[in-house]
């Protein structure tokens, strides 16, 4: 056969005449992405992702349908080519309606495989559920009790009735395995001989140590307090988080080989320079444990306590003495925890003073509800202006009424004092729970932000100091525990890369397509699901629980867990890890919102016993249509409509079930984006190794 010779990415190539550039590149070991191409079919040239640059040609050419010719000089990976491919991918994404991962999983800062572990619980395999959780989060007993549940905010089940009780299910898995007496310990890599100092035994530090030990590195955890847990121990009362739960999850980190040194404060007992000298790397998970000021006259008056100082003292001694009449100032979770704790210490009158309305309170709503059930009085639209000790030995608080004005930077309406509304409240104690800050004395040598938090790369956890990494509240400011856990895991991955002499790139983050927040999702997503009530978490009665620090929420029984887990809608794509569109979107750093306008609507055909067709994910590559015509001799699938309304549908307007037995398994296998999937396949979850799910490599 006649040969042609040409140049491909600087290489001289000889192929048979008529050979397509795509095939020639593949034979030469050069990868060119494509979505609509199938080696068994005539080139279609619809996706245009396979374009290449040919010297002397004004336009880019599709490599799948362009034959190589003598003397051609071809570039497969120039800036122009990459820009064109990115544009093509973004155009496809703009009309692609679907979620790569379940929205619960996408909303979880730690990226926990929520659909996966819930499915294990539904099947009765509690240990497998826990192992899956711990791929991304090592503190399920703790966070299963105290997490503010961003995952549940994204849960699509609320389009039917109520969200899945994800946190309660996570807690159950942890508690069940622990109660079995056979606590789960992950496998460890061979020792690397590297030593890492982890400063802070809160969620970020414990998580970093957990994963670093798995990776074969020896960790020493230095903690300023006498016990581990950070703010989960010293900022959250035991009636929400029993101390034995903290102990057992810390013990797992110890069993993995981490060494703990307590009563060791950064900047006082140890310096950053010492740590850098003694260890191969340092992770700083210092937290934000400095109480914010009320910024009023007399706040240092005797009888005025800080919220975190008060809760820390009670954590050490639950028989602590406090006055009968207590005012808590603030509207966050610490304020609510302090108020409920004061009741348990014997105070008969406890109030929360908050300068906005209940709606604007940042505290978790169910905790506010619980506080009111227990007898805490909520006094809104009021703020202190002065504190002084009265002749009666009481604390006299001058307060002023507030009204809401225009929104501030937080988006909440700004509280404005009402002139002439000053009044004096007399109490035994004031607990100021205004907020928490990072202690800058612990951060010497590090670049800080204007808020005195550590200036670290959020993704890689790197700081301005070589070999020093940081994450959690000391970087973000006071935040939820699961965010700190996520930072600890990212820090462990970056530190592993650093000490092993690799480039520090952090945890790979693949592209994840989304249908949007719950209020933007097509309501048809919920069709076909019967209403099933969410299982209620059993609790101690309010009158009983304020007499003790026993845990309020008593836990699900196994029967309740199985029922709750079966409510999961298994959102997400069954083909996300094999999806070429996702791979290319990751490679080209594509933005699904780059192009807007009319897009396809949600249409799901599950009539077939084995196959699901989700036409909202279809990119109209035509592969299924061409396979049924060219390879199978049928017309199971076809194009319907013209122009922007054109869609690929079962031929003749049939439901998918009506084309049973016409080779549908073959087109499922060749669908590049998961529009056609087998019902037997699971929705995309984490890969069974120490990393986030990553799409298949481009080559």
Structural overview:
- With 699 residues, the chain is of the alpha/beta class.
- Among the domains are: 3-77, Ubiquitin-like (UB roll), CATH 3.10.20.740; 103-184 and 532-565, Fumarate Reductase Iron-sulfur Protein, Chain B, domain 2 (Orthogonal Bundle); 195-285 and 438-499, FAD/NAD(P)-binding domain, CATH 3.50.50; 293-434, FAD/NAD(P)-binding domain, CATH 3.50.50.
- Helices cover 28% and strands 16% of the residues.
- The chain has 22 helices and 26 strands.
- The strands form seven sheets. A five-stranded mixed sheet has the order 2-1-5-3-4, sandwiched between helices.
- Strand 22 (604-605) and strand 23 (611-614) form a beta hairpin.
- Helix 4 crosses helix 19, helix 6 (140-146) packs antiparallel against helix 8 (166-179) and helix 9 runs parallel beside helix 17.
- The radius of gyration is 30 Å and the shape is globular.
What features would you highlight for this structure?
globular; 26 strands; 5-stranded mixed β-sheet; 22 helices; disordered C terminus; Ubiquitin-like (UB roll); Fumarate Reductase Iron-sulfur Protein, Chain B, domain 2; 5-stranded parallel β-sheet; 699 residues; alpha/beta; FAD/NAD(P)-binding domain; 28% helix
Task: Please write out the topology.
Blueprint: E1 3-8, E2 11-16, H1 21-27, E3 51-54, E4 61-62, E5 73-75, H2 79-94, H3 103-107, H4 114-122, H5 126-133, H6 140-146, H7 150-154, H8 166-179, E6 195-199, H9 203-214, E7 218-222, H10 231-234, H11 243-255, E8 259-261, H12 272-278, E9 281-284, E10 290-291, E11 304-306, H13 307-316, E12 325-329, H14 333-344, E13 349-354, H15 365-374, E14 377-380, E15 382-389, E16 395-407, E17 413-417, E18 423-427, E19 429-432, E20 436-437, E21 468-470, H16 473-476, H17 481-499, H18 542-545, H19 558-565, H20 580-587, E22 604-605, E23 611-614, H21 623-631, E24 637-640, E25 647-650, H22 664-670, E26 676-678
Parallel strand pairs: 1-5, 6-7, 6-9, 7-8, 9-21, 11-19, 12-13, 12-19, 13-14
Antiparallel strand pairs: 1-2, 3-4, 3-5, 10-20, 15-16, 16-17, 16-18, 22-23, 23-26, 24-25
Helix pairs in contact: 4-5, 4-8, 4-19, 5-8, 6-8, 9-17, 13-14, 14-15, 21-22
